Amino acid sequence: MPYFDMRQRPTNNRTYILALVLGVGILYFLFTLTSNSYDPYQLVRKRKADAAAQNPLSPPTSAFRKLRNNDPSGKRRPPPVVHYQLNNLSASANPLAHSEKILILTPLARFYPEYWANLVRLSYPHEHISLGFITPKTKDGDAATAALNDAIKATQSGPEPQRFQSVTILRQDFEMPLTSQDEAERHKMQNQKPRRAAMSQARNSLLFTTMGPSTSWILWLDSDIVETPTDLIQDLTSHDKAIIVPNCFQRFTEEDGTPGVRPYDYNSWQDSTTAKRLASTMGKDDILLEGYQDMPTYRTLMAMLTKGAIREPDNDPRSIMSLDGVGGTALMVKAEVHRDGAMFPPFPFYNLIETEGFAKMASRLGYKSWGLPNYFVYHYNE
């Protein structure tokens, strides 16, 4: 028969103390785990707080957390000296794995709610996305700015995952050459040079004001792009190209009520012998334009190489082609391209201007442009 000794043994105080410490440690761990389970956005908030700027002179792509300007003795604190090591900055095919910062820039003359709704739906973590806008000082620009402010206020005070890292709004300090923003007026051939020169000025002002030392990628997204894949950022960056642009189409309704799609942006192209010969006969202040019958260039237009239907079985969305000119409706650029000096020329640059001139300037700096003929974004239909 088994024997159990029921006599009480002497108590060791060190054993009690060790058990107490262990119990407190377990309770603290369980409390921390429980707290995190009730607050799924705690880690996001901490990362945002760690990245927040603490001085008005800090880059605008960082969220700003205002601190007291004076120390306890009453003396005003001097601005900090901050060191940035850009050699450690990456722009890779997997930006999410490296927490790479994306700067989305939009020249905005009209505000479309569909544009903003599409922007908020982007699946790339918004804590790594900064936004920048520039609006004209016109009546339409005032209305667009007011609507934009309302949308920003609603998003930035809404659910934590939808909030962006920072938002910057600029107002143009120059007059727009066109008073009307109607699509027919914007696309008149005689309006192209002054209109696109002004667009270049706006893009450059926005770029050089908002690009910070932590920016890895810049997505130029026009304010009338109302439909894109939610994984737009991940899809474009996955090709790891310095400059890459999707195909921009427009949805419309046929006369019989059938829905259809049609090419919209003709500025993404491969050059032709005819276009080069035409440019050689032009003056230094003249520009080549694409998509006009009065100026046939016979370039290979990316917009004309596909039917524009996302679910066509023979259309591989990762199919890629080299380009000599790019459009700016949804243009992804590694920030180093802009840091090296490639901007949007508001003047004829090799008889090219704005985004097409940018592609030429980037090429002169050693950067190649690429296009995705079967990957689509869609322009608003007026």
UniProtKB/TrEMBL annotation:
Signal peptide: none annotated. It holds the Pfam family Anp1. SUPFAM superfamilies: Nucleotide-diphospho-sugar transferases. It is found in: Golgi apparatus membrane. GO terms for biological process: cell wall mannoprotein biosynthetic process; protein N-linked glycosylation. It comes from the Eukaryota. GO terms for cellular component: mannan polymerase complex. InterPro entries: Mannan_Polymerase_Subunit (IPR052086), Nucleotide-diphossugar_trans (IPR029044). Residues 51-79 are annotated as: Disordered. The chain crosses the membrane at residues 16-38. One of its GO terms (molecular function) is alpha-1,6-mannosyltransferase activity. Keywords: Golgi apparatus, Membrane, Signal-anchor, Transmembrane, Transmembrane helix. Its main location: Golgi. It is a single-pass type II membrane protein. Belongs to the ANP1/MMN9/VAN1 family. This is Mannan polymerase complex subunit mnn9. It comes from Cyphellophora attinorum.
